[in-house]
Design a protein that fits this description.
Length: 129
């Protein structure tokens, strides 16, 4: 009987740990989404094509998969926040992205919002220390 209870506790603990990992992964993804938008817009104050943008973000500690980056770039361009241009470089056609004037204005607003949120979080987290 003791052995059965042990097995049940082990299975429940394993399920709980798995559920917590899934929850953490989901929340982490949600947190990263907003940060990635801000990071991409900020990096595109200077012109980049996809690979150099991914590399610049990764060099700053914010790795992003191609399967995430390219749909994001298309969406931001559709929203009018980016402009793009196809050019040949190193004998290959590459699409270069840059902030549009509307993107520059939105980036300023988002940065102000980010700084306010960050200050509030820092104050909240400081209280917990």
């Amino acid at each position: 009987m003791t052995r059965i209870l042990f097995v049940i506790q082990y299975v429940l603990h394993s399920m709980t740990a798995s559920t917590q990992n899934d929850l953490f992964d989901s929340l982490r993804l949600e947190l990263r989404r907003g940060c990635l938008i801000l990071a991409v817009l900020a990096q595109l104050r200077a012109e980049h094509y996809g690979y150099t943008l991914r590399k610049a973000l990764a060099d700053q500690g914010l790795a992003i998969e191609e399967s995430t980056l390219y749909p994001l770039l298309r969406r931001l361009e559709t929203q009018g926040l980016l402009t793009s241009q196809w050019r040949e470089e190193e004998k290959r056609n590459k699409r270069f992205y840059r902030l549009s004037p509307a993107g520059e204005e939105i980036l300023k607003q988002l940065l102000a919002e980010w700084r306010g949120i960050n200050a509030s979080l820092n104050a909240i987290l400081k209280e917990e220390s």
